[in-house]
Amino acid sequence: MAQNPHAQTSTTQISVINESTVLSDSEVTPVVIALQQQVTNDFRPIWGTDAELKMIPHGNQPPTGSWWLVILDDSDQAGALGYHDLTPDGLPIGKVFAASDLKAGTSWSVTASHELLEMLADPNINLTVFVQNADTNGTLYAYEVCDACEDDSFGYQINNITVSDFVYPTWFETFRAEGSTPFDRMNRIQKPLQLLAGGYIGVFNVTEGSGWQQQTAEKNPLNLRHRGHVGSRRERRSVPRTQWINSLPQRKITNNAQQYRQQLQTMLRRKEAA
Questions:
Q1: Whole-angstrom Cα Rg for the chain
Q2: Residue pair 19/56 in contact by the 8 Å Cβ criterion
Q3: Inside any domain, residue 246
Q4: Would the pLDDT of 227 be above 80?
Q5: Which partner for 167 in 119, 171, 180, 186 could form a disulfide, CB atoms 3.0-4.6 Å apart?
Q6: Is 2 domain-assigned?
Q7: Closest C-alpha among 25, 55, 84, 118 to residue 230
Q8: 3 state SS of 96
Q9: Contact (Cβ atoms closer than 8 angstroms) between residue 196 and residue 189
């Protein structure tokens, strides 16, 4: 396994907040345990950053100063509750849209792993790698560590929970020869900047001025997932940080969540009565 010998391990406190209506706390808790093991055992030795995850049950308050990983139904619910681009303290936040994953037939635990690892690798969503293609042009590659191998089929199991594969720093190092070193956790990628089937990466051509684009293994977007949900890392990367919005205080979000669930129940009763 490739190591990062110069990495300095730091530990980040991350609150995992379940606001989803499709997952109970008891369903989320074993995933949090698996994610903790992935971060500490697999991710930390490579990327030099560690995290302590804490499950926050429905209605409870996360510790002040923690980063947030929020389990939600979809981006509409995120907006309705008041989860925006940063925590109320202006700290990093990751969002997992469990209902959207279930509708699409994809694994929400893989998405949670994906969002967690990418938040740890690039919490400010501003890191890139520059690849100079010629004297006067080049391309910026987003420093996203799961996009290239993000498909569920490339994940792996921890305690019977499927988590996301992730790339190593060598994936961004174009001087590396094909097959010369591991480029990802599962050793499926064979060369720098390679995208597996279903994979993608954000690219910015610095001479064309066309903004951030998604480059896919298939050379064209296959579904809406590649575009990024509202509030996703992909969307935030293309929005100036001065325009990012802090989330509401958690107590206000809790009140919004109660109203949101009441509205869902009312809609369900009306549907059943129709």
A1: 19
A2: no
A3: yes
A4: no
A5: 171
A6: no
A7: 84
A8: strand
A9: yes
